Amino acid sequence: MMSITLSQRLARRLRAKAGFTLLEILIVITIIGLLVTLVGAGLMKQLDNSKVSTAMIQMRSLKSALATMDLAIGRYPTQQEGLDLLVKDPGDAAPGWSGPYLGNEAQAAEVPLDPWKHPYRYIAPEGNGEPQVMTLGSDGQEGGTNNAKDIAL
Hints:
The chain has helices spanning 6-17, 22-73, and strands spanning 121-123, 132-135, 151-152. It is mostly helical. The protein has a domain at 54-153: Glycoprotein, Type 4 Pilin (2-Layer Sandwich). The relative contact order is 0.11.
């Protein structure tokens, strides 16, 4: 009878226990999936919040450009002219226009879209009021809640 040493028995046991069972692998994959779901949801919420912040910053920039243009031509754009007057020379319709008021002449200046790829809305002022710039939020429709709500400045 062949005698097996202690070290040989230990080596056989270790080889028999090497690797993972299918159940252990499935448990690890499930845990990773849960973590990705929880972290992914948090990241998506942060992304939505950053889009709201970006929209606010862009609208402030548009309002600043409108104020600069008002100083140059003595008025804000009409409802028909809209935000395009910030980047397109209207010729004789606005004497003193020295834009574009967004970007610079080296760039092809355009009115930016909101973070959800919708155009900003412009509401011309009545009388001596201020113009309003707004976005309809992530859903692109009036009303809404949370990140889909309308934002106006």
